[in-house]
Amino acid sequence: MKKLLFLLSITASLAADGFNDTCNQVNGQFSAISGVVSSSLPLDPLLIVNQLPCTIDQPGNYTVLRNLRYSGDGAAITVTSNNVSINFLNHTLTLNNAQAVGVYAQNVSEFILENQIVQGASLAAVHLKNVSKAAINNIYTANNPHGAFFENCDDVQLTSSQFSGDSGVSISSSAHVLIDTCTFNGTDNAIGLSVDGSSTDVIVSNSNFSNYLSTIFVGEVNGMVIDHCQATASSESNQNLIQLGTATTAATDIIIRNSSFMNSGSVDGFDGILALNGSGCLLEKVIVDNGSIHINGYEDLVANSCTVKGNTLHGIFIEKGSKIVFNESQISGATLHNIHMLDATSCLVKNCMIFDGTSGIYIDNSNGGGANSIRNSFIFNHVNTGITVADMAKNNISGNYIWGNDVGLDIASSYYTETFFNTSCNNKSQDCSNVYPSQQPGGTTSAVAGSNLCCS
Q1: Burial state string for 288-314 with b = 16 or more CB within 10 A and e = fewer than 16
Q2: Each residue of 58-89: pLDDT tens digit?
Q3: What is the span of the domain harbouring residue 24?
């Protein structure tokens, strides 16, 4: 009887012009209940990756809910569809085959991979080929020769990830690649980051590299920025920390700034930065510790506010380079020459401090080159000579302050060097060698000189 009266009351209320309001209220209650039930149910089994090998050929948000192991060759997970997201939720993918690849995506766009751990000595943890608009975040790989391999890709972001052991990142023939806030901790026989194959517009920022044989190898690129990065070589490394170009490929339009590079060993001739082939490089606020900046054939390199220091053979070694400028920089501690120009052309050192080494600046263009300048710099406290010019080419030495060396300024082997307004005083053996009278105005050679102050 009570149920009947209840139903009659409901019917009366509906009849009393409240039908629509009541329906809306009931529908709203059912929608809320449906939402709670849906959140409690397991994910769509079609979007859960729980068996390998797996091919994802439909768009969607895929999830890994447990650790996975793969012993086959080829790819454990293959992506062939656009608009795919894979979230590993920090689960591990273990690869037990040296010919395996963890995640392989080809000819797709809008791809996201995140929160993945890949271990095992396999070909690659992640391989993207012909992929555009990809984002990889928070992955960890160990002992894969390619932790991440981007091949013929465009618009790829790799962020907040770690690469360990033999694992590293390779970029080949790709454009618009960003690597940000990543950590690389390698081994004595691995390279942290390799960029090659006519890649363009690569940015590496806020990242740390340590213990690799060579941290960054740039074989061929047009447009690259390395910003706010740190790199430390393995103690066993006899390679350079950064290489720009090879004998047959060029690295052009490079910016390296706000970064430091250190050799933890003491190998003579170790290069913190080797600029081998290419043109157009800016070094700004770069620190090289226990290694040199070696420029071999590179053109149009400008270094502003840089520091090169430590127990290495050369601080700056310009070998057949041209149009190289060091400005407002500090170079110290080299066991041979703090700055060595060998067959260099149209190079300039200005407003710099060169100090505390075996020899300050040594210029030798006997096999080519010339027209180099040392201007308005401080050269002091060297075991041997502050500035030596040992060639017959025409160079310019002007406005420098030279003191505390064994010999201040020596241009005995150069009959064409111009010397102006240099102050060479308080050197131990001799302030000036062959500056006066042979290179003063009206002297016996064709060089032009004048207004130098040699205290002894």
Answers
A1: bbbbbbbbbbbbbbebbebbbbbbbbb
A2: 999 999 999 999 999 999 999 999 999 999 99
A3: 1-41
